Structures are given as structure tokens and as C-alpha cells.
Amino acid sequence: MYLLVLCTCPDNSVAELIGRALVEDKLAACVNIMPGVTSVYRWQGNVEFAAEVQLLIKTASDKYPMLEEKINSLHPYDTPEIIALNIQQGDKHYLNWITESLKENS
């Protein structure tokens, strides 16, 4: 099973730090960094607006626990967004590439 993991970051430097670490540690095959996201959320009883950077992380489900741990260790937020969505379908060549990219010997 493959996952698309969503994670917002406060700025591009944090997004790049997390993205690089996940790919270097073979916890993610690919991380897309999408700047210019405006988040609206409730925090400590207040409605907040924040400019953020969205990460789209492609991985395999067996990597998720370590991926979550890595994000939490690097992320400055008290409660970072880490949401995993199952990838129901995808191009077989791309999905095979994810598998190959996450192998320890590649």
C-alpha cells in the first residue's frame, strides 16, 4: 500500500529540511514543496490564519511510523499536520518507482 502524506510547514526552509531528510533516509520517494498555502484553523480557542508551505509526501505504508517520527523530530510546531491518505490507484511504473526508491540498497 502506498500513501500520500500531507504536512504543512511554517516556511520554505523547514519544508526543505524535512523533505530532504525524508528522501535521504528513504522514508519518502518524493516530496513536493508547495509554497503559498493559506491555512485557516482553530488553535487554543481562536481562529487563526497562517501563510504556510504544504508538503506532499509519497511513501509506502510500512515506512509511515518512521516517517511520522522523523517529521515530529524536525518540525517546529507543537502539533504538526501529519495526515496519511491511502493511494488507491496509480500508474504502475510510478508506484514501482516508489518501491524501488525506498529500498535500503538503492
Notes on the structure:
- It is a single chain.
- With 106 residues, this protein is of the alpha+beta class.
- 32% of the residues lie in helices and 40% in strands.
- It contains three helices and four strands; from the N terminus they run βαββαβα.
- The protein has a four-stranded antiparallel sheet with strand order 2-3-1-4.
- A hairpin with a 2-residue loop joins strand 2 and strand 3.
- The longest helix has 13 residues.
- It is elongated.
- The chain starts with a strand and ends in a 5-residue tail after the last helix.
- The mean pLDDT is 96.
Chain-wise SSE layout:
Layout: E1 2-9, H1 12-24, E2 30-43, E3 46-60, H2 64-74, E4 83-87, H3 92-101
Antiparallel strand pairs: 1-3, 1-4, 2-3
Helix pairs in contact: 1-2
Q: Give the topology string: H per helix, E per strand.
A: EHEEHEH
Report the total helices: 3
**Which band does the percent of strand residues land in?**
35-45%
Query: Oligomeric state of the chains?
Result: single chain
Question: Which strand order does the major sheet show?
Answer: 2-3-1-4
Query: Would you report the number of β strands?
Result: 4
**pLDDT averaged residue by residue:** 96
N-end to C-end Cα span: 20 Å
Structural class: alpha+beta
Radius of gyration: 14 Å
Helix content: 25-40%
